[in-house]
Amino acid sequence: MSSYAEVRPEQLTALSRYRHSLWLLTQRDLRVRYSTSFLGYFWSILDPLVMAGIYWFVFTQVFHRGVGHQPYIIFLLSALLPWMWFNGTVSDCTRAFLREAKLIRSTRIPRTIWVNRLVLSKGIEFLASIPVLVLFAVFAGARPSGEIVFFPLAIVIQAILTAGVGLIVAPLVVFFRDLERAVKLILRFLFYASPIIYSTQDLPHQLHFWAAFNPLNGIFSLYRAAFFPGNLDWFTVGVSAAMSVAFLGLGLLVFTRTERAVLKEL
Prior knowledge:
By secondary structure, this protein is an all-alpha fold. Helices cover 71% and strands 0% of the residues. The chain has helices at residues 14-35, 41-62, 72-93, 96-99, 101-106, 113-140, 151-175, 179-193, 208-211, 215-224, 234-265. Helix 3 (72-93) packs across helix 10, helix 6 packs across helix 7 (151-175) and helix 10 (215-224) crosses helix 11. The longest helix has 32 residues, at 234-265. Residues 1-7 have low confidence and may be disordered.
């Protein structure tokens, strides 16, 4: 029996061809990103580690503020690492079509791949950073809870949300180039509006309900539940899941309506 690699593209089903092309482009992204880097993988975890170290020092050593939960470094990393996945993917989606314009025009593969490859490659980097979280948890004495079983659910919801936002951003930037800078500002605001360096419980009580409509809120609560089960709020998770699916639907709609115009503009 022929192996998958030996099957010619025309012999594959449409879904198989899509998966095959997606995986090839994802591999290419990862090779390009790390082939010229001496430290390679460590660069993908250095940025969140430096950020976590800064916030840990500021809030625990300088201001002695009781935000989040203890150990605070684990509280930070459990949201900061998935944030890097979301932030990195959406940022790169602003250049997804402009950077690969010639290749996109000359190939017939579904154009959604140019967004989904970023979601997948950044998602792989996130998965590769999980051992760092585990290592810090061991040193900090943070024990995993039974809610760790919901960790994969958080990954699925975040992948859906990230793909949806990427499918909205990628084509619109082709028409509105200033949107690239606007997205950076929005992401910066979203970082502080999301419970990354603080917990939702640290917000004024009247803001708890409205905070649930930030889709990242429920996702981060699922991740953090692996070590802080009291942080899990199923209402927030449900809202995040519903909004993520809505963003994906909207993203597919925007992408489908603008695809032809994007190809003419490139």
